[in-house]
Amino acid sequence: MSAIDFECHVDRVEHEAGDRVRITYEGKFLPYRKW
């Protein structure tokens, strides 16, 4: 994943045992090869 065009979102998610946090990373996919 490329960090040049990159976004990070942090959302609060309600849960019966207490609120939780959802972290989403969004970036450009970079293909790779196994050597």
From TrEMBL:
Keywords: Lyase. It comes from the Archaea. The keyword Cytoplasm does not apply. Residues 1-35 form the Cyanate lyase C-terminal domain. GO terms for molecular function: cyanate hydratase activity. The keyword Nucleotide-binding does not apply. This is Cyanate lyase. The lineage of its organism: Archaea, Methanobacteriati, Methanobacteriota, Stenosarchaea group, Halobacteria.
